[in-house]
């Protein structure tokens, strides 16, 4: 059996933590890297690194066979982390056998700055020399809930209810990414989509039902190309309903 050393960047984030949880049961030698060491890292080897300054990156990638790049920053310093920092990492990773890059379904069709930066990072991989797999997923269940369904207004979810999502559980996607290690470099892998395509209104109504909330849903329309692209389902992948954990199961799991 070939034993590989796997580096997980962004090990303290939601996806990074899910990856580490599942890698504990694997035969891979695992190293983690981030700016801060947290309890989630557990017994795994940890190396300090900073994507932007480049400090620690050489030590992080040393003797590594596979990188799963879970480091991301959608809200703060996005350009620096998603592109500039990514370039810094790639410049040190010339010897890597397989670079696995988690990305997002529909980023070339959705006019959102963070998505454009993710697409720019994909281009860096496509135009580089490192063997890679780009694995795109639909949005995480937790992302949808936190962004749209966490702050009701006067006991109402006031939301763009007609836009569509095919949300997926982060644990499902982490499992899929780990499977790509054995599959080897594929370029662009099949998209990874959640098991159901639902409108945001349907998701809000499901949360009300599961949590037995005394709330109502008020649906609004929004102007602009971003709203139109989500309305058209550009962020979904109907042919790839690969995930197993539904949004309802995610909500129920949070209660237990």
List the helices and strands and how they pair.
Blueprint (H helix, E strand, L loop, with lengths): L4 E5 L4 H10 L5 E6 L10 E4 L8 H5 L4 E4 L8 H15 L5 E7 L8 H14 L5 E6 L3 H8 L7 E4 L4 E2 L4 H14 L3 E2 L9 E2 H12 L4 E4 L5 H7 L15 H9 L1
Parallel strand pairs: 1-2, 1-4, 2-3, 4-5, 5-6, 6-9, 7-11
Antiparallel strand pairs: 8-10
Question: In summary, what is this structure?
Answer:
The protein is an alpha/beta fold and 256 residues long. The protein is built from nine helices and eleven strands. The model has no long low-confidence stretch (mean pLDDT 94).
Your description of this structure?
The model has no long low-confidence stretch (mean pLDDT 94). The chain starts with a strand and ends with a helix. The longest helix has 15 residues, at 78-92. It has 256 residues and is of the alpha/beta class. The protein has helices at residues 14-23, 57-61, 78-92, 113-126, 141-148, 170-183, 200-211, 225-231, 247-255, and strands spanning 5-9, 29-34, 45-48, 66-69, 98-104, 132-137, 156-159, 164-165, 187-188, 198-199, 216-219. The chain has nine helices and eleven strands. The strands form three sheets. The chain has a seven-stranded parallel sheet with strand order 3-2-1-4-5-6-9, sandwiched between helices. A two-stranded parallel sheet has the order 7-11.
Gyration radius, to the nearest Å? 19 Å
Task: Name the helix and strand elements from N-terminus to C-terminus, one letter apiece.
Answer: EHEEHEHEHEHEEHEEHEHH
Structural class, by secondary structure, is alpha/beta
Task: Let me know the largest β-sheet.
Answer: 7 strands, parallel
Shape verdict: globular
Poorly predicted runs are none
